[in-house]
Amino acid sequence: MLLLRQMYCPIAVLVVVLSVPGASADLSSEDAVVLIATRLQQNQVLDGPETGLWPGEESFMGPITAGMACAYDWTGDISYMFTARSGAFYLLHAANLRGNLLGDEAYALVRMSQLHKKELGGEPGAADQWIGALASFYDSLRLSPTDEGSTQAYIDYFDDGEPSANVFFFAHHVVAAYYVDDPDKEIWRDALIAQLTRVDDDTSSLPVMALGVATWALAKIDKLDDTPVASTGESPSYWDGVMLRDLPMLLLGHQVPPGELFAGSFYWRFDHGGGGSPSMAAGFTEDAVYCTLGLATAASLKINLQNEEMRQAVLFAQEALLQGIDADGAVHEHLCRQGEIRHVFAGEVLQGLWGVKQYLAAQADAKTAEAAPLVNGEN
Description:
Blueprint: H1 11-17, H2 29-43, H3 61-75, H4 78-98, H5 103-120, H6 129-142, H7 151-156, H8 163-179, H9 185-197, H10 207-220, H11 247-252, H12 285-299, H13 308-323, E1 332-334, E2 338-341, H14 343-371
Antiparallel strand pairs: 1-2
Helix pairs in contact: 2-3, 2-14, 3-4, 3-5, 3-14, 4-5, 5-6, 5-8, 8-9, 8-10, 9-10, 10-12, 12-13, 12-14, 13-14
């Protein structure tokens, strides 16, 4: 995640850009995945000491690798699996050298482990090196022999960090810690909530994106419950009286409505303003990705599967994501297809589209189950 805002184009220019030749308004999700994944595959380093790396993106290997895993899961194209594996091996090597695994990197290993299990068809097979690496990392934090060493001590190290960045990394750690059933998984969940409490328009670079990624993580572990976000009176007023189960509807309130510029995307601030800068108030790719993931994952929960408002919001968000993809599969900082082109944005969009696909599949399965004939009084 870049946590940058380099978009300073006048609105008039952005509107023109949306109508230039090669716009992807009619691009299907499947076509978009192939375009993006193929471009990522072609730009990965294939040999030498940097094998598996996307040049210039050493700090962003997690989202790209996870995105390629999603592309393989979607298409079954084995070449995408090889690309994801190569990225994951580079990621592990880099993490071993620095002695740390970032949250988005941990989640990339979760995706690799999920693919490993899928390939084996649920049968016992070769050791899952990805889950082994994850378990070892979380064990190393909890079981450190030094006086300062513990999961909580590691978390406390980030106390002075930028709140929305902390939420981003902790959200991914929460999903990974629950995936390996780490004994300290609840500590990670509590840390995520504590960091979310700090997020507001004044102190955070990407407040709405933080809400989106937190919603995604807590929905992934099925913990959107009655836990209050703000546990003390020192929290920003935005969180007063808010419980975790309220997060999806809060997030829904930050989606740009029909008829507005960048409709279907998300505002980046809670006040829906530009923060006093020339930057746009909405339409940034990373905001759209993680807010889409938050909505889609929350909508996939059993209690929300038939919520038509959320379904329409998820489809609306998917449409906005598809608008931001170049004809060659490049993805920009902004959905108007301006700003920096980065591979990390491409990997994140792959994850966002995969999240929508999973939600639609879950909803279809639920409807099929409802329509099934009753047998002995039960489905």
